[in-house]
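Thread title: Can someone regenerate the structure for this chain?

I was given the following input by a collaborator and told the matching structure tokens would be attached. They weren't. Posting the sequence so someone can regenerate them.
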Amino acid sequence: MTLLPHLPALQVVVPLFGALLCALFRRGTPAWLFALVVAWTLPVISILLLRQVLAGGPISYHLGGWAPPWGIEYRVDTLNAFVLVLITAVGAVIMPFARRSVAYEIDGDKQAWFYTMYLLCLTGLLGITITGDAFNVFVFLEISSLSTYVLIALGRDRRALLAAYQYLVMGTIGATFYVIGIGLLYLVTGSLNMVDIASRLGPAAAESSRPVLAALAFLTVGISLKLALFPLHVWLPGAYAHAPSVATAFLAGTATKVAIYVLLRLFFSIFGVALDFKSLPIAEIMLALSVAAMFIASLLAIFENNLKRMLAYSSLAQIGYITLGISLANAAGLTGGIVHLFNHAVMKTALFLALGAVLYRVGTVKLDELSGIGRTMPVTMAAFVLGGLSLIGVPGTAGFVSKWYLAVGSFDRGWWPLVFLILASSLLAVVYIGRVVEVAWFREPCGRVAEAKDPPWSMLAPLLLLSAATVYFGIDTEASASIARKAAEGLLGGLKQ
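Best answer:
Regenerated them for you:
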């Protein structure tokens, strides 16, 4: 097929032009139908890219025929092909759920605008992941961020505007730090192409170590703000709690995962090639922040009444597990971090969709108003419990696979106390998921809950698919952990010894 060589460009061009055309619609249903077709096209492209990479190695696509480093390069390897599949799959699975949920939560004249921003956000996230140009990452970062602010602000709750504004402020600071870091790298290396920067950075670092270390610091802080690494997380709970349910599920499954991908790329593919990380306290700092996130965020989740905010704090804790794998910097630990990036996206998207279904039927996600919801919405809440079990890390679920690799990586690194910390933080997840189970299943329904029922199949099917996936990927790890291990080995193989 003549289109096969151009799949990297199509991965970004399709949702970009889809967003432009979607903006022409005036009503929600036609806009949703068009966005559905676009969103369902994207996983086909990403899966074909992943198959090409696994069969023949990295793909280098030169935009406009201009060879890198002068031209912009889209570069696809095992790691970002894996992330591309994750983003497009989450974006596609959510779309059937979106029609009724968006119609319920967003005013009619704004629904087409929501789908436009949804596709534009997808464009930015896919562009960040596929590009091999460091400044191009910044451009796509701004595209995804600006559309995300709108997605959050479209919530009917007035607090959604405040949440969007807080995210705008923090996102702007993060983007500023990132572009300063890229500017320093350009001054030192004279290049913006990531592969070229890595090749030039070794000799440059020996002569100009301070600018290189300053660039590393700026970039780390900038991306950490985007991925909500503790304590740079203040924007996330409000954004997840007050955004429309579809936007929350989409952002939880994709946005922070793409930021983590960028952090992996910076640490291992660019700076790790030039700097000896063992001589820097990066692993120790990242380890401390990860453990703090695992415990402090989980404790905050235990005392939260708003279930969307509870899951937001849970996401902060789960991000801590992923960055813990990065700090271990060995094969098992990094595999655990990458596979948890995938597993957490699946389970947390399922959990937020379950809450979206509850909001659709009952009109609230406050725990003290949902007594007996498991009896009146049994399928929805069973899917929620299944996602919660994976969040805890129960054997037979995807979450267990992630934590197993993290535990093995901790032993391999000689940091055996970390195994007990992973177990202890998982017990905290038992508490906040257990609170929901107790209220939902062991209390009598009353009020609106007594009249509620499971949502229509268009909403239920995506939820059940994702919940089933949390079990499937906990049993058959060939499609997740094996690819994550290959990606981890590729990242570690280029590190300066």
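Residues 280-497 form one domain.
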